[in-house]
Amino acid sequence: MVRSMTGYGSAEALSASGRFVVEIRSVNHRFGEVLVRLPRELSQLEERVRAAVQSRVWRGRVEVSIIRDNRSFRTRAIRPDTELAAAYAQALAELARVLNVGGQLTLSQIASLPDVIKVEETPEDAEAIWPLLAQALDEALAGLVAMREGEGARLAADLRGRLDRVEARTREIETRATVVVAEHSVRLRQRIAELLGEVPLDEQRLMTEVAVFAERSDITEELTRLRSHITQFRDDLSSNSGPVGRKLEFVLQEMGRETNTIGSKANDLEIARAIIVIKGELESVREQVQNIE
Fold it and tell me: pTM above the 0.70 mark?
């Protein structure tokens, strides 16, 4: 099935420590690239996230963001720094002695000093939260793939229509090619007759010139290969064997090569006009294929 490289998917996971939002975006890229953004405390899960994405998306630039939406659920612990508090108390006692100042230190005074009381969030247990994140990641990936497949189906329909027009013009060229040599022979005979007047026409020389023209303008092989490439392109569009974008690009390149050769060899105005139309369609196909996985 043809899939686009453009898509979006999202899902969320709710755990005891907060709500996580998983967002996945993908855009065109010549190869496969996965960028993962995670909360710092979950960084050890990066390779698992990347592997999960790569198992379902083979081509394109994919950005995965896992965001903690609400941090208020995080458990917190209040921890006193006893060593720092003791150091404060000793320093204040020494200062009171030197300045000869009386008074008693109270617990509230020491607790109000910087960094004596610390509020710490409980470290995230990445292993415990991974099953929930994995499920949300799978849901987001399903949405991404569904969007890529939907867009891919529309691209395939457009490409088939353009191939139909290319094939129709190819048939016109085939039909026209059968009479080009005969018409050239008639024109050449008329032209020589006009130039020679009453002088007898050398039929042998005329036939030689016509034969040379026929050989030089013969496009039978190119038309055969072009028809074969069109068939191959259609088969690839209907393939279920995985990514086809790179293969379509190669086949399209060969179609362009045969089209250029036909245009250069066929000395005929009608064929030249058909070639222009085919080239226009192939250029549109090329632009569309750039977005196929």
Answer: yes
Per residue in 74-92, pLDDT (tens digit) is 566 788 888 888 888 888 8
Q: Does residue 49 sit in the same domain as residue 134?
A: yes
Q: What is the residue-wise DSSP string for 187-243?
A: HHHHHHHHHHTTSPP-HHHHHHHHHHHHHHT--HHHHHHHHHHHHHHHHHHT--SS-
Whether residues 69 and 137 share a domain: the answer is yes
CB 155 within 8 A of CB 14: no
Model pLDDT for residues 163-209, shown as the tens digit of each residue: 999 999 999 998 888 877 666 566 666 665 565 565 565 567 656 76
**Residues 142 and 52 occupy one common structural domain:** yes
Whether residues 51 and 19 share a domain: the answer is yes
Q: CB within 8 A of 99, min separation 6: which ones?
A: none
Residue located via tokens 């040379």 = 212
